[in-house]
Structures are given as structure tokens and as C-alpha cells.
TrEMBL record, chains A, B:
This is Acyl-coenzyme A oxidase. Belongs to the acyl-CoA oxidase family. Keywords: FAD, Fatty acid metabolism, Flavoprotein, Lipid metabolism, Oxidoreductase, Peroxisome. Residues 13-126 form the Acyl-coenzyme A oxidase N-terminal domain. It catalyses: a 2,3-saturated acyl-CoA + O2 = a (2E)-enoyl-CoA + H2O2. The keyword Oxidoreductase applies.
Length: 639, 639
């Protein structure tokens, strides 16, 4: 794998790269890479990790200023802005076109959009999305903030009656935002109509002071420095008033006389969630892939133990311990990226129609991407040994982002419950024949037809798509069967639903990957086939515990499956440079001392140390000298 | 579990607490808790996370100054100092009594000890341990730094010939240390005698300037803020000279005339590693337990979904998703703490004798503790939903420490190779009958005697120690068998050794836990029995994939095993307050907004936000106002 030793210095625009990134995404990436690195503020020279929280945030605001200026000047798309944001790292402007804009787009009336969207697109107002409260995150029905209609003034009065009703975790609210989309119960004439969205100005547009009737505190640091450049905020309302026109009126609305017009379909309430989870499904994969890209180049460079002919030690990428962690992770993240993008596209196509199946799909995608991404980045770091633990390796930054993603936009266990519910519903009404995603439930109607031994003594059999699919279906049907049985018995199934969701998504991601491959360019077909095969067999091997005690797989099956897995690893190995070469993250994107282009990683690591803010430690020397003589005081006082 | 709602405000000194902490450890902890929180610098008021790297480090130096002063004054033991260090968090003085002192104690000659130990114990000199190089961490044979004997002056000349020979990752070397124990090849008359230890002064004792012939750079931030208060350093030697007397002469030595006296037994070379890994085996468990303690109290307070009689929502601790993560993790970490302490004690007892089996034991303990601790802390964080992601929750701090522990003092895969080697050796010489730790290899001599079906249809059977032990032995013997077969075939087994090491340790930790229980106080016997049972059955369930395709466990076995697991969870549940109560971490130790004693977590979280360094954001308002008007420039320039 000689070509791995040299990371890319520019983006790759080959047909394979277009296929992997998506042609428009790649074009946007090229646009951004041409422009952004030229600007001093984006030059990666400031060591953000060493700054205080205050200075860090201020620097991120300055980066936001520069980015918004460039974006306006270039007339780029909103997607350009989103991508730039992801490349640069979290800034207070991050929520603007994600959760703020997307909710406006999905849930305001046409007139409201005409009024608000231009302001949002010009950054004339700065937005955030205020849903979570101190007491309620997962259970939105428990939200306590109320918006009571006052028909005398045609206004809503916002109240946060308790500490637990304080809005919290609101990204960009702490110091940056002028406006918040507030999720609040709508109260009309003493009647509670449940949660609705309201556009609420929170700071004065001239002075940036928090408006009267509102208190806002910034939340301080998040763990592991997660999203340090973002000012999450805590907010309470004390009789704050907003005009009636600021209730989102895309589906339900309130007339001047207090008549409530309920939504025609209930879709709207989760549309924006579906969109964001869809986005995350592929985005998180790209972040994890960047970490694996860095690690792959470093382990191809690093040598340790085992002298080879010529006296050089063995490259660590050649050890089983490294291959068995790195290669399946690469395959998995490519599967996540390609499937995630299919989910995003499907959601966009279906906007406005019945989206219940998209809802389930986006849950699977988000849970799968976040659970695997956090672990795969940790794998990347561990692969690099001690040097993976340098901040300058660039692996920790991804970890904080990806690990938190297991919680935000819905805790993995909590949102997996939705797949459980879909399965129960489908099973009860016998819907599996018309709902292809849950077709595997058929196996539960005729269990005996499927429980015979597979008998794939030859490892070659495991490379057969039909055999692979059979095992994947069998596994998820076993888990679904246990789930349905436990549900019937009234047991709490909230633990097992996560494994069920992962197995369900394993099956669909394998299928989705193979179907995506059909439109792949000739150039990369071999590589992608080897990748898909490895991804598939690795999901089989990782899912084996489900088959303990089952007759379905025999001892010989397992032996041959594990052999097939090793073959798939070996077959994928020569294609690794081709796959990583298609990603071709530039040094500006990786910001990693472990894969520099113009020097060796060792020079980069030592060079980085030469800039340490503690190299001049004269300011602490008097203290250190004092410490070294403390024992004398002790001896004197004993005399 | 009502009593869980109130975390402890003082340490518990009941017989159970003594048993769990160890009586001396608990006494030391009480001594420290009485003294340290009184001092302003240890009052937990400074928000370290918000500081710049430089200020953070400086604050840690000041804490070190205070701690050393108190320690000298009180005349406390070295163990007191180590424990205080762990409570306060990493400071530059952390290596002094760990790796610095312990190497001196284990590897210097009596005369050398008489000279150096008093200086170390007085903090007259400040130490660090310099082994790892840029190019070599795991493979110590590859170390390039050389100490060449110059008989004309009776000195060694230290050289770092290349960038890759730079010492790196050396904790406390970056700015703090005056002395380093340097691992270097010994060269005498052109003959390379391999690695030896040398005491090297690196900074001037009057000015704290780095000495001529040496360069030192501080390494800058570590990922995820890991050990931010520690100044890890990179060091090179350019013909730096030290007297011959500074070669560690506890086992091998060099005479004035250049005669090399090789070590009599090779034990010495790994003694200090064994000691430190032994220490880590239990320490890491305590850190993870602290995180679980915080999470347990929070999930007993937090309510979400599912109204109960009286209208209150369900406590999240009552969900299967929470119980199935939290309770086994608590049981596991107690098992780790108790077994780890047994390892530490066994090592101390055996110092100076043949320690090969201690070596293997300490590898198992360190790998097991670090792999589980990192995951269990992540579980703790995820259990707490969004609020677990506040820095003030106190969970991230443990994670950074524990996740890095998978790498430092030996990468998990690399050091697991040593168990693999021991197994191969034992198998080849038929030693399993005399080496109880590897007794399970007997099963491989007569496989048919063990492969019959277990047939434990009744879940009650799984609570039987003999049945439990049989499955644990069977599992590790299957893995050992595959390992030996692959080794015989010349395959690279470096991936599978980690699973083998974990299974080996599962078996021994279950046994160790039950044997520890024999001396437990009456008071906690029931609780500890329920805990041991849960730990055991959870290791069985988590190890099921090994049995896929095997006749050993039937479908009914698995079903009854999973039932037994749920029973074990239910039986452990009422004892959770008792176990956590024995740990009784004080608020000063947890430093967590999620388990305060004098207010509700919600008040603590919001209160914490009120102190944010970004609440006064006037300094950035001009920039924000400018951003909001950037679009106007754009419009103007278009006119
Ligand atoms: C970095 C970050 C950024 C965020 N940004 C925003 C933002 O901009 N705007 C916004 O509105 N919110 C935001 N949030 C909030 C986030 O969406 C919520 O924290 C998240 O949805 C989790 O909800 P929770 O905190 O209530 O978890 P909880 O529900 O309290 O979870 C606690 C535990 O209970 C378990 N649990 C809960 N319910 C059940 C059940 N029914 N069955 C079984 N187990 C259960 C969970 O698995 C979890 O282990 C952010 C959060 C983070 C961490
Ligand atoms: C926070 C921290 C503090 C530290 N403090 C100190 C200190 O005070 N003093 C000091 O001297 N050192 C210190 N170290 C260094 C530490 O001990 C080493 O980094 C660690 O032992 C790992 O070695 P490595 O970096 O060479 O890993 P590598 O060996 O380079 O590991 C890279 C990858 O290769 C794999 N690998 C390597 N060899 C094999 C093999 N034979 N078979 C299969 N796979 C293999 C590993 O599994 C890993 O995935 C510290 C490190 C850290 C992170």
C-alpha cells in the first residue's frame, strides 16, 4: 500500500470521488477549498485548544464574521454555508441554516416565510432553536413553557413558571442570537393546545441587550470541550409578550378571535426533525471518515517491532490488530455516507407528503451513524498509539462532536423506541408484505421455514449476496421476534430496541450499499465491491451473539464465515488507497500532525511542540523554586 | 431506591465501606477529606475548563505548591500524596511518587537510593520518567537514545541522533521537572548493552533553565483536554554528559574501568511496569465508579415520560434501558476495584522474587480496567442525556483520563500479546496443571469431555457457581484454542489476543470477586453476593458470541441464561443504595452539578450557568452588530 504514505494535498475530482462525495457536494467542497484557506482567519494557525473559553468563543465569532462576509459576496448557496461550517468547526452561526432556517421553511405559512426568510438569509437576524427545557428533552409533551393568548392585545404572553421550564442547551442562544424559535404550549381561553412554535426576538437589535421579561445565561463549557465555540444558553420568560403573527402558521394557526385551527396532517410536527436527522446520517460518517483517513496514513507510516529484510521495522498497518480495526471501520463509514445521502435525498423528495416511513428511516440512519461514528473515531485514535492523543493529531475534535451526537437530536435508546413501535404496529396489522423495510417479519409467521441450518462449509459461500442477506434477515427477525414477545408480555423493551435498530439498519445499509454500487463508475467498481463485501461480512461477524444457541448456524458455518471475513479483509486491502484517495481530505481539512503533506509526521509533531505556550515558563519559575525549598521551612519549624 | 436521591455529604466508615475501599485507603481518604477542602486553592471554585492552557497549568502548579506544603507539614505517607493527587486532578507533581520514585526504589543500588530518595521525598528535585521516543513507544528495543561511556572522564555522553530518537510524552518534563529518569542504550567500548536507566538532571537548580546539551519543548494540548495540567515534554540530547554514578545500579552496573556487570535476574527490568500497571488496575475502577455514582444519583432524580399515579413522570432509573446499562457497570467496577487491589497487594508481597506471573496478572488487570473504565464512563455520560454533557456534570474529566489509559503504560493490544505468549509457552510445556491461572487449557487436551450440551433449562441453574465457572472456562478455552491453532499456523494473532485477555480476566475476576467476598462484613454480604452474581452473569451474556455455532449451549440454555440475567438485575437493584452508599463520594470529590447535596440538580445546573464567562458579552457586541449589517455593504456594492 505504498501510495498511502502520501496524503492528498488537493481534492480529487475523479468519477469515483464524485460518486463517493456526491457530485454537487464535491463541487461545493472544491469551491470552498479554493476560497477559504486563503483568508488569514481560516489559516489554521491559531491553536484554539490553548485559548480560554472567552477567547475561543470570540475567535469563533470573528470566523463567523469572515465566513458570512465571504458567503454574501460570493452569492453561494445555503448548502455552501453549511459545508463551510462543518469544515471550519462549530461557530455561533452554525444553527442559522440548519435548525433555525429549516424549521422556518418547513413550518411557517407562506406570508410568514416571505417576511422572515430574507432576514435570515441576510443574517440580519441571528437564530437558534429553543425546544429542550431543564426538565424535558426526550419527552416533549412535558414541556412547561406556555404562550397564553391575550385577545385584548392580540399577543401571546410567554411564561416559564419553574426552574425546570427554563429552556436549556439552546445552541447560539447564550450570547449570539437575536431570535429564537421557541417550542411552547399554546393556551387559548384556558385550553391547552399542546406544543407550537413561536418566533421570539430575545435581544435588542440595536444594543444586543437581552429584552425585558427574558433572562438568558450562557451554559459554560461542555464536557470534553464539545462545541466550545458555541454559546449554548439557558432562558426563562417572565410575562414576555409577542404578537400573534409570530406563532408558526404553516399547519395550525390561531385567528384574531382566538379560534384555533388544528393541523390537517400531523406530519409537520416532525418534519424538521426528520430533515436534521437525515442530514446527520451522512454528515457524521464524513467526520468519522476524516479521522480514519488521518489514522490510515499514520499507521502506514508508523513502524514498530519485527524487523523486515533491510532492517526496517514492520509498518503497524501490517499487523492484524490494526487491519481488523481499520479496514472494517473504513468500509462501515463509506456505507454510512452513501446510505445517509440516499436518506437525505429520499426525504427531500418526499417533503410535504406522508413521511412516516421517512421518520423511521431517519431514526435508523441517525442512530446508526452516531453510534458507529463515535466508536470509529475512538478506534482511529487508539490505532495511532500515544501520538493519537496529541491535540494536533486532530482526532479528539471529531470525537467530541460525534460522541455528543449520540445524545443531541434524540438519545439513541429513546428514538430507537420509534422503530419498535413501527414494528409492533406492522406486525399487528400484518403489514410486512406491503412494507418492504419490515419484510423480514415474514420469517416470524413461518419460523420453521427459516430455522434450518445454513450449512455453508465453504468460506466462498459467504461472499454470496443471497447467503449474506439471509443471515442479516434472520438476525433481525430473531431480535424482532424477541422484541414482539416481550412487548406482548408487557415487558419494558427500551434496552433491546437499540440492538434491534442496529440490526435492522445493518440489513438495510447492506442492501442500500449494494444498490448504490450499481451506479458507481467503472473506475472504482472493484474497490467498492470489495468494500461492500467487507462491510457485509463484518456485520455478520459482529452480530454473531444473536445466534448463540441457535441451530441456524453450525460450527462449520461460523468457521467458514470467519475465514470469509479474513478473505474479505485481504481482498479489500489493495483498494484502501483508492478509496481513501477518493476522499482526499486536504491538510487544511485534516489539520493533523499525523498526516502532513510536506514533512514527516515526526517532524510535524516535534515542530508543533516547538510552538508551545509553556516553552517560556519564566512566569512560573519563582513558584517552582519556592516549591523546591518548602522542605527547608519544615525543617526549620521542627528545630 | 428512595435513599439514592440523596448523595453523601461525608465519607462512610462502615465495615462495608472499609471492605470496599480497603481500610487503609479509607483512612487516608478521610484524612485528606478533612484537610484539603479547607484550603482556598482546593475549594472547587475556579472553573478550570474556561482557562487558557497557560493559566490552567499555572493554577495546577499553585495547587501542587499548596499540596506539597500541606503534605510536608502533616508528615503524611507517600500514599497520601498519591491519593490526594488523584482527588485533585493531574498536577505537574503527579509523576513524582509514581513512576519517578517507584523506579528509583525498584532499580537503584542501596547507595544510590540513600543519596536520591531524600531529595525526591523532600521535592528538592522534581522528577519525570523519560522512556518513550518519537519513533518508539511499544517497542522499547528500538530506543535510539544512547549513553556512551567515556572512561577518560568517568562519564556518559548522552546523544539523540535523530528526530525519532527525541524523548516524547514525558509527563512533567515540559516545564516542571529538574530531573528525568532516562531510558537509554548503554554503549561501552563500542558494545551495545541495551536499555538502562540513567538519572539525568535537565534543568539548572538555581535558574530552572534547561541545561546546555539538552533541548526541551512542551508538547501543547492533548486531545479532549486530557491531563491539561500536566506539561508533557519532548527532549533531545546533544552530547550532554552525566557522571557514571548516575546509571541505575540496582541490578546491572558499570565499573570504573568499563567492565559491565550484567543483571543476575531479568526481573528488574519490568518490576516498575508491573507495579504501575497493578496500581492502575484498581485506580481506574475508582475513577469509573465515581462517574457511575454521579450518574446513578442523577437518573434516580430525573423523570421523563410515563406518568405514574400522582401525576409524576417515571424516574429514568426505572427504565430497562437505564438499568441494563447502569447496574452491570456498577457491579463490574466493584469487581475491578476489589480484584485490582488484590493484584496490587500480591505484587507488593512478591517484590524481589520471580514475578513472571505477576507480570501477566498486571497486564490482565490493566487491560481489563482501562478497556472497561473508558466505556463505563461513556455509559455514565449517556445515561444522563443532555445534562451529562455539561462540563459541570464531571463525567468528561474521568473519560479523558480513562480513555488515554488504554494507551499509556502500554497499548491494550500490544500488552495483551504477553498473555498470548504465556499461554503458548504453558501449552507447549504442558504446564497447565501447575499454573492455576491457565488451568482452563486442560479443556483443550480432552475437548470431547467438555463439549456436551450444558442443558440448564431452568434459569435458577445459572445462579450456581459451578455452572457459571464452567461457561467462563469453556469460553476462554475456546478462544485459547483458536489462538493456539492460529499461532501454530503462523498467523498474526495480535487482534484476537485482546478478546482472549478479556475472557481470561473475566474468569479470574469472577473467581477473585467470590473469594474476596469471603472476608466481607456481615452487613454487606447480601448486597455483595447479589453484585457478584450480576457481574458474573453479565460476563456470560456479554461473551455469548463465542458460543455461536457451538453445541455447548442450547437455545434453552441461552433463554434461561437471559432470564437469569434479568433476575440478577432485579435482585441487585435493592442493594444499589447500599453499595453506592459505601462509596459515598463527597461533593468535593464528585464536583458535579448532577449530584449536589444541598440543592436539586436543576438548580445546580442553572446556577452554574449564571457564572458563565460569556454572560457579559459586551466585548463582542460591536462585531455581532457588524455581522448583522454585512448584507448592506453587499447591496451597496451591487448598486
Ligand atoms: C451538545 C448539545 C447540543 C444541543 N443543542 C440543542 C439545541 O440547540 N436546541 C434544543 O432545543 N436542544 C438541544 N439539545 C438538547 C438535546 O436535544 C437533548 O438533551 C436530547 O434530546 C436528550 O434529551 P434529555 O436530555 O432529556 O435526555 P433524557 O431523556 O433525560 O435521558 C436520560 C436517560 O434516560 C433514558 N430514557 C429517557 N426516556 C426513556 C424511555 N422512555 N425509555 C427508556 N429510557 C429512557 C435515556 O436513554 C437516557 O439514558 C442539545 C444537547 C446537547 C448535548
Ligand atoms: C497521556 C500520555 C502520557 C504518557 N506519559 C508517558 C511518560 O510519562 N513517560 C513515557 O516514557 N511515556 C509516556 N507515554 C507514552 C506511552 O507509554 C506510549 O505512547 C504507549 O506505550 C503506546 O506506545 P506507542 O505510542 O509507541 O504506540 P504504537 O506501538 O505506535 O501503537 C500504534 C498502533 O500499532 C499497534 N501495534 C504496535 N505494535 C504492534 C504489534 N506488535 N502487534 C500488533 N499491533 C501493534 C497498536 O495496537 C496501535 O494500534 C504517555 C502517553 C500518553 C498518551
Amino acid at each position: 500500500m505504498a501510495s498511502l504514505s502520501q496524503p492528498a494535498s488537493e481534492p480529487n475530482t475523479s468519477p469515483l470521488a464524485k460518486f463517493i462525495w456526491g457530485p454537487e457536494n464535491l463541487q461545493r467542497r472544491c469551491d470552498l477549498l479554493k476560497e477559504l484557506p486563503q483568508h488569514a482567519i481560516f489559516k489554521n494557525e491559531v491553536n484554539l485548544a490553548a485559548l480560554s473559553r472567552r477567547d475561543h468563543w470570540a475567535y469563533r465569532v470573528q470566523q463567523a464574521q469572515a465566513l458570512i462576509g465571504i458567503w454574501l459576496k460570493k452569492g453561494w448557496s445555503r448548502d455552501h454555508f453549511l459545508d463551510a461550517n462543518r469544515m471550519i468547526g462549530e461557530m455561533p452561526c452554525s444553527p442559522q441554516f440548519r435548525i433555525f432556517f429549516k424549521n422556518i421553511q418547513a413550518q411557517m405559512s407562506p406570508e410568514q416565510k416571505a417576511f422572515w426568510i430574507p432576514k435570515v438569509e441576510r443574517f440580519e437576524i441571528l437564530g437558534c432553536y429553543a425546544q429542550t427545557e431543564v426538565g424535558h428533552g426526550s419527552n416533549l409533551r412535558g414541556i412547561e413553557t406556555s404562550a397564553t393568548f391575550d385577545s385584548t392585545t392580540d399577543e401571546f404572553i410567554l411564561e416559564s413558571p419553574t426552574v425546570s421550564s427554563s429552556k436549556i442547551w439552546i445552541g447560539a442562544l447564550g450570547a449570539w442570537a437575536t431570535h429564537a424559535i421557541v417550542v411552547s404550549r399554546l393556551i387559548v381561553n384556558g385550553h391547552d393546545h399542546g406544543n407550537h412554535l413561536f418566533m421570539v426576538q430575545v435581544r435588542d437589535l440595536k444594543t444586543h441587550d437581552v429584552l425585558p421579561g427574558i433572562t438568558i445565561y450562557e451554559q459554560r463549557d461542555k464536557t470534553l470541550n464539545t462545541l466550545r465555540g458555541l454559546d449554548n444558553g439557558v432562558m426563562r420568560f417572565f410575562g414576555h409578550r409577542i404578537p400573534r403573527s409570530q406563532m408558526f402558521a404553516g399547519s395550525s394557526s390561531l385567528s384574531r378571535d382566538g379560534t384555533y385551527n388544528p393541523p390537517i396532517n400531523k406530519n409537520h410536527s416532525y418534519t424538521s426533525m426528520v430533515i436534521i436527522r437525515g442530514l446527520l446520517s451522512s454528515e457524521l460518517g464524513l467526520d468519522a471518515m476524516k479521522a480514519l483517513y488521518i489514522a490510515a496514513h499514520y499507521v502506514a507510516f508508523r513502524r514498530q517491532f519485527g524487523a523486515n529484510p533491510g532492517g526496517m521495522e514492520t509498518r503497524v498497518i501490517d499487523y492484524a490488530s490494526v487491519k481488523n480495526r481499520l479496514f472494517p471501520a473504513i468500509a462501515r463509514e463509506v456505507a454510512i455516507i452513501l446510505n445517509g445521502r440516499q436518506i437525505t435525498a429520499a426525504i427531500e423528495e418526499r417533503l410535504g407528503t406522508n413521511m412516516e416511513d421517512m421518520h423511521i428511516m431517519s431514526v435508523g440512519g441517525k442512530v446508526y451513524a452516531s453510534e458507529h461514528a463515535a466508536r470509529d473515531v475512538e478506534i482511529a485514535r487508539l490505532l495511532c498509539g500515544g501520538h493519537g492523543t496529541h491535540e494536533s493529531a486532530g482526532l479528539g475534535r471529531s470525537y467530541t462532536l460525534l460522541s455528543a451526537a449520540r445524545t443531541y437530536e434524540g438519545d439513541s435508546y429513546v428514538i430507537s423506541l420509534q422503530l419498535g413501535r413501527a414494528i409492533t404496529k406492522c406486525w399487528q396489522r400484518g403489514g410486512e408484505d406491503t412494507l418492504p423495510a419490515l419484510g423480514y417479519l415474514r420469517r416470524l409467521r413461518k419460523p420453521t421455514a427459516y430455522q434450518q441450518r445454513l450449512r455453508q462449509d465453504e468460506s466462498q459461500a459467504w461472499h454470496d449476496r443471497a447467503v449474506q442477506d439471509d443471515v442479516l434477515e434472520q438476525r433481525v427477525s430473531i431480535l424482532a421476534g424477541q422484541f414482539l414477545e416481550d412487548t406482548r408480555k408487557g415487558k419494558d423493551t427500551s434496552f433491546q430496541v437499540l440492538e434491534l435498530t442496529m440490526a435492522h439498519t445493518d440489513l438495510h445499509y447492506v442492501r442500500g450499499l449494494y444498490s448504490a454500487l450499481e451506479s458507481s463508475p467503472e473506475e472504482g467498481k472493484m474497490a467498492l465491491k470489495a468494500l461492500a463485501n467487507l462491510f457485509t461480512i463484518s456485520t455478520l461477524v459482529n452480530g454473531l451473539s444473536t445466534f448463540a444457541g441457535s441451530d441456524y448456524l453450525s460450527y462449520n458455518d461460523i468457521r467458514s464465515m470467519k475465514e470469509a471475513y479474513q478473505t474479505a479483509l485481504v481482498e479489500f486491502e489493495p483498494h484502501v488507497p483508492c478509496i481513501l484517495g477518493a476522499f482526499a481530505f486536504t491538510p487544511w481539512e485534516t489539520r493533523s500532525s499525523l498526516c502532513p503533506v510536506d514533512k514527516s509526521p515526526y517532524d510535524a509533531i516535534v515542530g508543533h511542540a516547538m510552538g508551545s505556550e509553556l516553552n517560556d515558563n519564566r512566569f512560573m519559575r519563582p513558584t517552582i523554586l519556592n516549591i523546591r525549598s518548602l522542605w527547608k521551612n519544615q525543617q526549620e519549624s521542627r528545630l
